[in-house]
């Protein structure tokens, strides 16, 4: 009774007559022959595709055709499946015969290899099989396998053993369906195949088991309780594949469960933004802005574009937008914080104006370039990619536009809230920790001390992180980019070339081997995916069901236009049939051409004649006209019938159109009446009886395959032959086309050809948009090369990860350029706006400003990708891998490759720039108005001068402050205006300022030497000349009282090389009170008491990650603004020698790379007498400013240079006064000579 009992539990011991099994095996084999013809007494029915399936594989690559493996498969089925309570309710019941009362006898046994061998050897059950019975069964299968693979052994041979090819099959192979079903359903195609049938011990790699349960969602509970996440291995035999028909339902379950991974990835990015910005308010507004962009894009997607199909992958646009939005927020925050530290007294309107001019320009340029790159996916023929490109491109564009609005507003609100909160705290006052207040838990001194200590530790940690960040991004990174630029260019060029070769030539990405209806939803190791991807092709019944190894049928079509008039953005829209009004096959010429076509097709090597099995089904009608001629020729005309339209042998060929159509209709009706089955080919008629379409079909010698290369050869051969045939077709048949089983090949062809084309087009679009935003051809080329290298290196990494090129992969690749261009655009625009003339300085500037935001964003995306790796859903897993790969690779190419290219070939000044006269004039006028100094803002001239320098070319013909030799007429006008304004003084002319303007900022200036000194120049390379003309009121407010101690016996102090000794103090207050004057006196006494040398009163610098003024003034300067004391102070303090006021200047240059630097100072000489009364001052005001003079009371100044004066004017002229020589920091520029007597000396 073992055959009808359930199989024992896993690990149980069979208690049957195993001891006598060897002795009775011969008798049982004979009984098997007697009752083998009725195996259905044990097996309920034949297996089929509607049943749930399990695939077994040996763990150590051994053969499953062994007694141990067969027993293991039976025991695993019992323990994993049949032991579940739900199985008894779902399984097919075994119905006993009438002699047994027609009662249900429990669940049917599974269609497994062990049960089939038990039937074949007449064993009691699967676990009672012996090694001898297994060997005898193998010998029987070896004899029958060859006939099966030849196509002679079919299932019908059991009922008709003498029919057709069944007559050559041995009788033992066709006594029952057991042998056929074992070879057809249960073993893989390579077991006992034509190549392995002669092996003494053939290897069975895979074996299939059919459960007596139909596929469907009811199997979900059994899978989740006993199979999902469990160890499916027993005795070196494992369940490696499944098909329960629950793949879609399981995908929805995994999608809901694994949605935690993208949520955690988003949270990690938002946490990074909060740490960087120190503001949850800005982070919350960023999330709202992204959500608003997505919703607005959805509105345009549905309403404006009228797209109905919204694929699930469109939701991944949120992660894409997070990257671009975080990049924009980081850059704007850096620039805003930099302005706050640089010019805290600047008005809010001015800061917003500058932020929108520079950072807004960068955001708009980056957003437009990314959006255009995303829109390039519209060129793809795959519907999901086109929909995704439209949605993501629209969302990216909207997000960039909204960023120009919400970013300034959010920072304004945060600043006002911070000021209000700080003011409220100041009003409340501060209570010492020792004060007693029992009102709260934290109000005791010990707890407050703990909080204070904790806060101090946190501040120290923050300071350490900030210092490390400044060292890394403001020192090491710019220096590493510039100093190792040769290595970076060579290394990344090799990477780009190798990535392009791997992506486009060899090995490329693997094409899909599954039909488009079978989507890949889980990771490749999942048993459901393994069955679809691997094991579906390993068993003969699946291969035949999918058409594998069967001849491909080719159909030639006339009368229907190959037009898709459906919705191209909706894959569910198939459109309607469009008939060809010019189709005519009844014309005599068309009849002759169709008749000759039959012979030409049959003579081709790809033509396969119909087999005897196809005689009942019309599968070959390529000779339809030839058959019509034969059918008409055998019909004799009736003498009593005078109708000329009757189809009989007296009618000559070609027939008249009406006779041809009538005879065709009669022949087809007669064949249908005889029992010939119709098929897709043949004639199609309109309701009025006219022929609407013609389909001629025939089989080819090509066997259907998922291999793209083989199918491509077949397709090209058929296409070449058909084009040649159709070129000679008569009128009415010249619009024919052919179709075959090429749906998978079409998908493979689109993916292989269009994916790289779309990627290349997106890179080309990147060049166009970079050129449009920068108007610089070299920068656009370098940026395009960097983006292209990033895209193809990313694709090559996906190739190395063995990704298969399906729709999802093609979608990601089409968006790679849009994700890569953000970083390149950042560096490109920053390079364009850099306030330096040399390319090294521009590279250093852009690296300092953009290095930290780019690195932070790429690092955040790397973390996001790592977080999404454990996901079971393939979409989340691949999305995470792609995001961190494309962002990290883009960061490397933008930071090192693009910047290194700019170090070598970067444009300087207007090199490679496309200039349009109308735009250049407009830009100059607009920026001039923005670069003027704001009254009341001490640092306005420095800040705006820096910005103006970066955005336009300075002109010395517009601003008096920019004159090396001032315009006398302009100075006269200024003098008259000053005299008419109540005696106020106009702005003084500082003839040394153009020296600072001509200097350049680069890492190589540390090695520049003066032509005179041959020593390293200490002239600040980052001092920028501020061209904005300062208002007269501002200058009057900054004028100070001055006195100097004249000591004619003292010698002139050694000169100190400096940049601009008259550069105004950006942090100096507008007005000077009497208290300030008193402090100035005390400070002057302290200075005068020193014996000599230079006193550094302030050496304070600030630090910022991306400072505009930092790139302009990187070295800390301390300037001395000298003014005269009031008349009252002079008369009341005759015994004291007046001193000049030292400007208390802490460098405003928030130096982002230089840190603390030595100060360059100019001091007041104490040897020459200065003005002593008011008349002298008035005379100086009336004095005509002359080029080269020190302008009145400026004669009291002496320049302190760190390097000594190397030459005097005694050897050059007869004058007795010495001249100060200012060595130029650039070897190719002349040094400057300044006469002490007020006379100008030409530069040498």
UniProtKB/TrEMBL annotation:
<keyword id="KW-1133">Transmembrane helix</keyword>
<feature type="transmembrane region" description="Helical">
    <location>
        <begin position="854"/>
        <end position="876"/>
    </location>
</feature>
<feature type="domain" description="SSD">
    <location>
        <begin position="275"/>
        <end position="413"/>
    </location>
</feature>
<feature type="region of interest" description="Disordered">
    <location>
        <begin position="1032"/>
        <end position="1069"/>
    </location>
</feature>
<feature type="compositionally biased region" description="Polar residues">
    <location>
        <begin position="1206"/>
        <end position="1217"/>
    </location>
</feature>
<dbReference type="GO" id="GO:0022857">
    <property type="term" value="F:transmembrane transporter activity"/>
</dbReference>
<protein>
    <recommendedName>
        <fullName>SSD domain-containing protein</fullName>
    </recommendedName>
</protein>
<dbReference type="GO" id="GO:0016020">
    <property type="term" value="C:membrane"/>
</dbReference>
<keyword id="KW-0472">Membrane</keyword>
<feature type="region of interest" description="Disordered">
    <location>
        <begin position="1121"/>
        <end position="1244"/>
    </location>
</feature>
<dbReference type="InterPro" id="IPR052081">
    <property type="entry name" value="Dispatched_Hh_regulator"/>
</dbReference>
<dbReference type="Pfam" id="PF12349">
    <property type="entry name" value="Sterol-sensing"/>
</dbReference>
<keyword id="KW-0325">Glycoprotein</keyword>
<keyword id="KW-0812">Transmembrane</keyword>
<feature type="region of interest" description="Disordered">
    <location>
        <begin position="959"/>
        <end position="989"/>
    </location>
</feature>
<feature type="transmembrane region" description="Helical">
    <location>
        <begin position="810"/>
        <end position="834"/>
    </location>
</feature>
<feature type="transmembrane region" description="Helical">
    <location>
        <begin position="313"/>
        <end position="337"/>
    </location>
</feature>
<feature type="compositionally biased region" description="Basic and acidic residues">
    <location>
        <begin position="1192"/>
        <end position="1201"/>
    </location>
</feature>
<feature type="compositionally biased region" description="Polar residues">
    <location>
        <begin position="1044"/>
        <end position="1062"/>
    </location>
</feature>
<feature type="transmembrane region" description="Helical">
    <location>
        <begin position="282"/>
        <end position="301"/>
    </location>
</feature>
<dbReference type="InterPro" id="IPR053958">
    <property type="entry name" value="HMGCR/SNAP/NPC1-like_SSD"/>
</dbReference>
<feature type="transmembrane region" description="Helical">
    <location>
        <begin position="358"/>
        <end position="379"/>
    </location>
</feature>
<feature type="transmembrane region" description="Helical">
    <location>
        <begin position="781"/>
        <end position="803"/>
    </location>
</feature>
<feature type="compositionally biased region" description="Low complexity">
    <location>
        <begin position="969"/>
        <end position="978"/>
    </location>
</feature>
<comment type="similarity">
    <text>Belongs to the dispatched family.</text>
</comment>
<dbReference type="GO" id="GO:0007224">
    <property type="term" value="P:smoothened signaling pathway"/>
</dbReference>
<feature type="transmembrane region" description="Helical">
    <location>
        <begin position="756"/>
        <end position="775"/>
    </location>
</feature>
<dbReference type="InterPro" id="IPR000731">
    <property type="entry name" value="SSD"/>
</dbReference>
<feature type="compositionally biased region" description="Basic and acidic residues">
    <location>
        <begin position="1233"/>
        <end position="1244"/>
    </location>
</feature>
<feature type="transmembrane region" description="Helical">
    <location>
        <begin position="391"/>
        <end position="413"/>
    </location>
</feature>
């Amino acid at each position: 009774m073992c055959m009808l009992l359930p199989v024992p539990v896993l690990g149980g011991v069979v208690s049957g007559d195993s001891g006598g099994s060897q002795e009775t095996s011969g008798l049982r084999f004979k009984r098997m022959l007697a009752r083998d013809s009725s195996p259905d007494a044990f097996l309920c029915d034949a297996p089929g595709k509607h049943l749930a399936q399990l695939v077994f594989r040996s763990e150590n690559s051994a053969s499953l055709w062994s007694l141990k493996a067969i027993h293991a498969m039976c025991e695993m089925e019992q323990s994993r499946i049949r032991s579940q309570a739900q199985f008894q309710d779902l399984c097919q019941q075994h119905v006993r015969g009438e002699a047994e009362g027609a009662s249900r006898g429990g669940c049917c046994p599974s269609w497994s290899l062990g049960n089939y061998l038990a039937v074949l050897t007449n064993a009691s059950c699967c676990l009672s099989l012996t090694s001898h019975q297994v060997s005898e069964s193998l010998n029987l299968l070896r004899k029958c396998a060859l006939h099966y693979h030849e196509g002679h052994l079919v299932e019908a041979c059991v009922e008709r053993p003498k029919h057709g090819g069944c007559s050559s099959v041995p009788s033992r192979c066709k006594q029952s369906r057991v042998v056929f079903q074992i070879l057809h359903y249960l073993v893989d195609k390579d077991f006992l195949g034509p190549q392995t049938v002669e092996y003494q011990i053939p290897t069975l790699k895979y074996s299939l088991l059919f459960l007596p349960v139909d596929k469907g969602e009811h199997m979900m509970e059994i899978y989740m309780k006993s199979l999902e996440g469990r160890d499916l291995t027993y005795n070196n035999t494992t369940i490696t594949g499944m098909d329960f028909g629950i793949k879609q339902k399981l995908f929805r379950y995994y999608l809901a469960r694994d949605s935690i991974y993208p949520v955690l990835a988003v949270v990690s990015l938002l946490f990074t933004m909060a740490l960087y910005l120190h503001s949850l308010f800005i982070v919350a507004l960023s999330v709202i802005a992204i959500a608003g962009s997505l919703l607005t894009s959805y509105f345009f997607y549905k309403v404006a574009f009228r797209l109905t199909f919204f694929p699930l992958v469109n939701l991944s646009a949120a992660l894409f937008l997070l990257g671009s939005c975080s990049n924009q927020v980081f850059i704007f925050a850096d620039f805003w914080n930099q302005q706050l530290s640089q010019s805290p007294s600047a008005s809010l309107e001015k800061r917003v104006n500058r932020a929108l001019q520079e950072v807004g320009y960068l955001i708009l340029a980056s957003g437009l370039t990314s959006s255009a790159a995303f829109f390039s996916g519209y060129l793809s023929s795959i519907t999901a990619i086109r929909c995704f490109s439209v949605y993501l491109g629209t969302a990216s564009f909207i997000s960039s536009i909204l960023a120009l609005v919400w970013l300034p507003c959010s920072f304004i609100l945060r600043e006002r809230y911070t000021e209000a909160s700080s003011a409220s705290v100041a009003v409340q006052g501060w209570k010492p920790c020792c004060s007693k207040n029992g009102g709260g838990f934290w109000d005791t001194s010990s707890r407050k001390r703990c909080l204070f200590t904790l806060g101090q530790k946190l501040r120290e940690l923050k300071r350490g992180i900030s210092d490390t960040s400044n060292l890394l991004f403001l020192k090491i990174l710019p220096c590493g980019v510039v100093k190792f630029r040769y290595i970076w260019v060579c290394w990344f060029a090799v990477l780009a070339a190798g990535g392009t070769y791997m992506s486009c030539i060899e090995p490329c990405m693997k094409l899909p081997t599954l039909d488009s209806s079978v989507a890949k939803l889980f990771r490749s190791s999942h048993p459901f995916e393994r069955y679809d991807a691997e094991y579906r092709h390993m068993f003969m019944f699946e291969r035949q069901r999918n058409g594998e190894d069967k001849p491909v049928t080719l159909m030639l079509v006339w009368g229907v236009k190959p037009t898709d008039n459906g919705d191209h953005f909706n894959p569910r829209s198939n459109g309607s049939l469009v008939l060809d009004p010019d189709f005519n096959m009844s014309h005599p010429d068309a009849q002759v051409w169709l008749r000759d076509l039959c012979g030409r097709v049959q003579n081709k090597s790809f033509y396969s004649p119909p087999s005897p099995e196809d005689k009942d089904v019309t599968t070959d009608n390529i000779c339809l006209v030839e058959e019509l001629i034969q059918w008409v020729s055998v019909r004799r005309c009736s003498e009593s019938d005078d109708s000329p339209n009757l189809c009989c042998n007296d009618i000559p060929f070609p027939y008249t159109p009406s006779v041809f159509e009538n005879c065709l209709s009669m022949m087809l009706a007669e064949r249908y009446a005889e029992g010939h089955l119709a098929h897709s080919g043949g004639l199609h008629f309109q309701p009025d009886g006219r022929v609407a379409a013609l389909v001629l079909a025939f089989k080819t010698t090509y066997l259907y395959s998922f291999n793209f290369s083989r199918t491509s050869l077949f397709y090209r051969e058929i296409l070449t032959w058909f084009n040649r045939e159709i070129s000679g077709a008569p009128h009415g048949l010249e619009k024919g086309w052919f179709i075959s089983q090429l749906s998978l090949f079409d998908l493979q062809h689109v993916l292989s050809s269009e994916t790289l084309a779309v990627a290349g087009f997106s890179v080309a679009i990147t060049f166009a948009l970079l050129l449009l935003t920068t108007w610089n051809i070299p920068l656009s080329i370098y940026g395009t090369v960097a983006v292209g290298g990033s895209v193809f290196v990313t694709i090559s990494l996906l190739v190395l990860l063995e990704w298969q090129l399906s729709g999802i992969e093609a979608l990601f690749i089409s968006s790679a350029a849009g994700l890569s261009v953000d970083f390149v655009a950042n560096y490109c625009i920053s390079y364009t706006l850099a306030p330096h003339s040399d390319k090294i300085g521009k590279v250093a500037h852009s690296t300092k400003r953009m290095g930290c935001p780019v690195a932070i964003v790429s690092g955040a995306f790397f973390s996001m990708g790592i977080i999404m790796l454990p996901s079971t859903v393939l979409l989340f897993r691949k999305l995470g891998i792609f995001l961190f790969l494309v962002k990290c690779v883009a960061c490397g190419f933008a930071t090192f490759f693009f910047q290194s290219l700019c170090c070598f070939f970067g444009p300087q000044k207007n090199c490679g720039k496309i200039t349009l006269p109308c735009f250049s004039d407009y830009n100059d006028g607009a920026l001039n108005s923005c670069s003027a100094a704001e009254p009341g803002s001490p640092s306005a001239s420095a800040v705006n001068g820096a910005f103006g320098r970066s955005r336009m070319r300075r002109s010395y013909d517009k601003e008096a402050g920019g004159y090396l030799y001032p315009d006398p007429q302009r100075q006269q006008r200024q003098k008259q205006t000053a005299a008419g304004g109540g005696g106020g003084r106009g702005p003084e002319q500082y003839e040394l300022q153009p020296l600072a303007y001509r200097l350049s900022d680069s890492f190589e200036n540390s090695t520049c030497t003066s032509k005179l000194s041959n020593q390293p120049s200490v002239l600040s390379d980052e001092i920028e000349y501020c061209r904005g003309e300062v208002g007269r009121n501002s200058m009057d407010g900054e004028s100070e009282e001055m006195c100097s101690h004249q000591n004619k016996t003292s010698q002139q102090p050694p000169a100190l090389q400096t940049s601009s000794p008259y550069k105004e103090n950006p942090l100096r207050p507008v007005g000077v009170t009497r208290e300030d004057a008193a402090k100035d006196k005390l400070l002057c006494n302290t200075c005068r008491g020193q014996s000599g040398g230079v006193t550094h009163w302030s050496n304070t610098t600030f630090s910022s990650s991306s400072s505009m003024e930092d790139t302009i003034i990187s070295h800390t300067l301390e300037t001395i603004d000298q003014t005269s004391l009031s008349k009252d102070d002079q008369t009341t303090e005759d015994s004291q020698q007046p001193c000049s006021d030292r400007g208390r200047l802490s460098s405003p240059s928030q130096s982002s790379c230089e840190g603390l630097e030595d100060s360059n100072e100019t001091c007041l000489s104490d040897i020459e007498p200065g003005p002593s009364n008011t008349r002298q001052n008035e005379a100086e005001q009336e004095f005509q400013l002359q080029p080269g003079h020190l302008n009145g009371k400026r004669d009291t100044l002496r320049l302190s240079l760190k390097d000594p004066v190397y030459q005097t004017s005694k050897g050059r002229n007869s004058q007795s006064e010495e001249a100060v020589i200012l060595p130029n920091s650039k070897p190719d520029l002349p040094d400057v000579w300044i006469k002490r007597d007020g006379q100008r000396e030409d530069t040498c």
